[in-house]
Specification:
By secondary structure, the chain is an alpha/beta fold. The chain is 37% helix and 18% strand. The protein has helices at residues 22-25, 43-56, 81-101, 113-119, 123-136, 149-156, 190-202, 232-245; strands at residues 3-10, 31-35, 59-64, 106-111, 142-144, 161-166, 205-207, 213-215, 222-224, 249-250. The protein has a 7-stranded parallel β-barrel with strand order 1-2-3-4-5-6-9, surrounded by 7 helices. Strands 7-8 form a two-stranded antiparallel sheet. The chain is globular and about 40 Å long. The two termini are 16 Å apart.
Length: 257
């Protein structure tokens, strides 16, 4: 039987502002990418989400980002390696405490937004990300895309990279994510989300924005659905059901659900 983790970005509210479908998503995902305060996520929100994740048996992951609260972490920040490393270690450390208080642990890491996309090609920022994960938890897997700078440098550092695919985002012919705002970059239809996710997991391929087919060089280990995608909660429920009906086991990241 094959297995897959369903992950989603959560805890992305801040103060009086709520964001995403966290409560509904936590009923259906197996891994929660928790915002650590630098692009979103205030302490009370992080505490609430880690509590819910532990109670629901959902794996907790550190979703780290550039220091860009105003831009929701979707802007490139030209930080030097030492500054970026310190920012990332700080974020992971904060989440570790909340996870421990909730009776759980941070079992994996993932970059958010601009850092995720930049580190796919930016050697310095990719290395800072890998070094931060290695310094805080060398046994923790890191979610990323095969063939990227992050993937290569994670393997070199002795970390375990996990191939992440995206249920609700379009792909370029190179196997990277199409930029937000470009036509067709966001997939919102639940049926299409399920169909393309099953193909990625079962066949290891995805149709790109040009209509071509991209074959992932590594078998997917996790499927991401973004919490701010319209209908994310319902799509996650449909995706969970579809995987189970297809005989695909749902697991966490860094350990089974």
């Amino acid at each position: 039987m094959s297995s897959i983790a369903i992950n989603s970005d959560v805890a992305e509210g801040f103060g009086a502002w709520s964001f995403g479908a966290d409560e509904e998503l936590l009923e259906h995902i197996t891994a929660a990418n928790v915002a650590c305060g630098f692009h979103a996520g205030d302490p009370a929100t992080i505490r609430s989400i880690t509590d819910r994740a532990v109670r629901g048996g959902v794996a907790i992951g550190a979703q780290v980002s550039y220091r860009d609260l105003a831009g929701f972490g979707r802007r490139f920040i030209d930080a030097d390696a030492e500054t970026l490393w310190a920012d990332l270690v700080y974020q992971i450390g904060a989440l570790e405490v909340f996870a421990r208080v909730a009776g759980g642990a941070v079992t994996y890491a993932k970059a958010h937004g601009a850092l995720y996309n930049t580190a796919a090609r930016h050697e310095v920022h990719a290395q800072a990300l890998v070094d931060a994960v290695a310094a805080t938890g060398p046994d923790r897997p890191i979610l990323c895309q095969p063939g990227t700078e992050v993937w290569t440098r994670a393997e070199r550092a002795g970390l375990t990279p996990i191939c992440e695919v995206f249920a609700d985002r379009a792909y370029t012919d190179e196997g990277l994510l199409a930029k937000r705002g470009t036509p067709g970059s966001l997939v919102t239809d639940a049926d299409e989300i399920v169909e393309r996710s099953l193909r990625m997991v079962q066949e290891g391929t995805v149709r790109t924005v040009s209509g071509a087919s991209f074959a992932f060089p590594v078998a997917p280990g996790s499927v991401c659905i973004h919490s701010d995608t319209p209908g994310a909660g319902a799509s996650a429920a449909a995706l969970s059901t579809a995987f189970r009906e297809a005989g695909i086991e749902l697991v966490g990241i860094g350990g089974p659900r």
